[in-house]
Structure formats: C-alpha cells, structure tokens
Amino acid sequence: MGEGALLANTTGFQNVAIGVSALRNNSTGHNNIAIGQDACSQSSGSHFNIAVGSDALVFNTGSYNTVIGESTLYNNVADSNTAVGEAALLENTTGGTPSGSGTGEVGPNTGIGAAALFSNTTGGANTALGFEALGSIQTNYFSTAVGFKALVNSTAGNNDAFG
C-alpha cells in the first residue's frame, strides 16, 4: 500500500509493505513487514524482518532483524539485530551475526534509544539502552551500556556501564 511499495516483487511472498517505496526492490524476500516511507526499500532477498519507520532497514540484506524508528539499521547486512529509536544502529553494516557467514559469529546487537549504538559498524554482541548509549563504539564486542549517554565516548569493547 503506497506508491512504489513492493514494486519489484517477483517470487517474494507473505510480505506486508505500507508506505511510499516500502519494500520497493524486494524481489524474492519473504515474511517481511515494512511500514514507513522507504522502509526496506533497497532490500531484495531478505527474510523475516520487521521495519517500522521512515528509512528503516533501507539497504538491508540481513534477515531476522527487528527495527522501530527513523533510519534504524540503515545499511545493515547482518542478521538478528534489534534497534528501537531514531538512528539506533544507524551505521551498522556487518555488526552482529553476519548474514550467511557461518564463521566469526559473536551475536547480534541490541540498541534501544535514539542514537543507541549509532556509530557501530562491525561490532557484535553489544547492548545499549538509553539515548546515545554506546554511541561511538564501532568495531568492538561484548559491551553493555544502560542510561543516558552511557559509554557514549567509549571506543573499546568489553565494557559495562549502568546509570
């Protein structure tokens, strides 16, 4: 529903697209839900994703991701990440469980709060809860930050901060 929604769909099935260009280039992906302008618009073969918000999961090739908020997981190619809040995990590319990698999998990321894990690109198994929590971390693993700007300037992994 919406101009350009599911425009390129060929063999994809059980998809829901609501919004201008939602799931626009999906051709073979299935069991996706995209709500919002350009949500999953460049995704073509991903499966079991939920994207709610303008520009959510735009360039996604991963599967099993759940995002709510504008520009969440914008460039994602990994599986099983969760992002809630404007620009949460915005820069994430392969961070989390790399799609189809079979090796080097450390676990998905969870970012809840506006700009949580904003700069993360390839780091995995990170959990951020709060505005800009872990906002500067890019490639590190196993950090947990809870609270307003918790570990916002940290660039190292294996850190925990609460409060």
In total, how many domains does the architecture comprise? 2
Element pattern in H and E: EEEEEEEEEEE
Please bin the fraction of helical residues.
Answer: under 10%
The class by helix and strand makeup works out as: mainly beta
- Count every beta strand, where a strand is a DSSP E run of 2 or more residues: 11
Q: What overall geometry do the principal axes of the alpha carbons give?
A: elongated
For the termini, the CA-CA separation is 43 Å
Characterize the biggest β-sheet.
9 strands, parallel
Beta content:
15-25%
How is this fold's topology laid out?
Blueprint: E1 16-18, E2 33-35, E3 50-52, E4 66-68, E5 78-79, E6 82-84, E7 97-98, E8 110-112, E9 127-129, E10 144-146, E11 160-162
Parallel strand pairs: 1-2, 2-3, 3-4, 4-6, 6-8, 8-9, 9-10, 10-11
Antiparallel strand pairs: 5-7
Please give a quick description of this structure:
This protein has 163 residues and is mainly β.
Account of the protein in words:
There is one protein chain. This protein has 163 residues and is mostly beta strands. It folds into two domains: 1-61, no CATH class; 70-163. The protein is 0% helix and 19% strand. The chain is built from no helices and eleven strands. It has strands at 16-18, 33-35, 50-52, 66-68, 78-79, 82-84, 97-98, 110-112, 127-129, 144-146, 160-162. The strands form two sheets. The protein has a nine-stranded parallel β-sheet with strand order 1-2-3-4-6-8-9-10-11, with no helix packed on it. A two-stranded antiparallel sheet has the order 5-7.
